[in-house]
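Your task:
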Amino acid sequence: MAVLLGLLNQADMYAQRVTTVGVEQVFRSIDESVAEHNRQLDALMRLFTTMRTDPQTRYWAAGSTRNQPLDENGRARPVKPSGYNTVAFPLQMSGNAWGANYVTSVKMTVGEVARIMSMLMDGDSRWMRDHLLAALFYENGTTPWTFTDPQYGALNIYGLANGDTTTYQIFAGADSAATDDHVKGATAVTEAVFQDIHDELVEHAENGRDVIAFIPTASRATVEALTNFYPISDPNLRAGSGVTELVRSLNVETPGELIGYVAGVHIYVWRSMPDNYIIGTTVGGEPALALRQEVEPQLQGFKKVADRSDHPWYESQYLRIAGFGAWNRAGAIVYRTDNATYAIPSGYDSPMP
């Protein structure tokens, strides 16, 4: 349960009435807590998203060239990078509220307010998490889904690279860009799956060199049993001789728990991941998704937007306006691990309400 900021060191206040502590003090603590909630959620989102306010733009791919042959009087012809794909981002509304009548508002304690706000902030985190995952899992052949923006009209919302006509530059092979597929299926969780996640991500110049993968809790035992899996060292234990452990931390905000390393990939258990799916991405590269928000700062983040008083009832209304769409379509990779044919996990179809 959340502790209201400003009351953190005054646990005895949790049993006191809001009217005793002071309504202004409690509501100021609520505002501070919501601001901290937004800060922490934004930090977690940075691994997967870049913040945007525009509805549609061009994602410029890394260029490719090679030196031109010259003699002693030669002069190279100027070159410029080329290649882009058009990406767009939806904008959806969600909200939550809490309220009381006159009698319960007088009797309400600080602890009860903290419990309510903890529930509301958790609800916002769940909505953001589910929409982020839906954007990563999205795959519908070569057809994007359409978001009808009230100001800009129909926008084509893409998922990750899925073998469609969009091309991507890679480090090795031909100088020209080629199509790619980052939405895959496998019949089991194997080291080869993680090797492919690593290779598919690091071959793109836009991505970082450190690869991480998120697995569901149900896959943990299988991953830990892989021959070349190296667990993270336990600070409470001293390993015996001849034991190889992971000792390097990437020092990055993630929604999961680091458990070890295999095939060049840092493995995290993310309890919110659906069973039989893996998500891979890199640290320090261009994020796979864009998180679109409104241009106006007052409409960004999770905000209290109104207090409603209609005696004997009172309400506080909270609003979130946000949407996710692919940005760097080769910046992440998803695997279904119980079938060679990929399918979106149940409950994560786009557009998600």
About this structure: Helices lie at 18-21, 23-45, 102-107, 110-137, 191-202, 220-224. The chain has six helices and 16 strands. The two ends are 26 Å apart (CA to CA).
